[in-house]
């Protein structure tokens, strides 16, 4: 058996209620139910099929579509890039 370490975490009142109910129904401790849930989650991540990254990529696609500040964002980004170029060119000329 692996050595146990203490880990505190916050859960919602609903999660606590459901864990307590599951413990009462199964006879397991609340801690054991939580540990098994963690093990299941970690196992799923370890055995995730290759396509999972593609699903994540699809979900991320368009995540900025509703932002209305992108013009300013890109303008500021271009300005910072230009300043870096100017510093680099100045350093190369004086170096």
Poorly predicted ranges (pLDDT <50, ≥5 residues)? none
Mean of pLDDT: 89
Shape verdict:
elongated
Biggest sheet layout: none
Count every beta strand, where a strand is a DSSP E run of 2 or more residues. 0
SS-based class: mainly alpha
Instruction: Indicate the percent of residues in helices.
Output: 55-70%
Number of helices: 4
Order of helices and strands: HHHH
Strand content: under 5%
Cα radius of gyration in angstroms: 25 Å
- How many angstroms does the end-to-end distance come to? 63 Å
Explain this structure.
Helices cover 68% and strands 0% of the residues. The mean pLDDT is 89. It is mostly helical.
State the main characteristics.
0% strand; 68% helix; mainly alpha; 95 residues
Topology readout:
Layout: H1 13-26, H2 30-46, H3 52-60, H4 70-94
Q: Would you summarize the structure shown here?
A:
This protein is mainly α and 95 residues long.
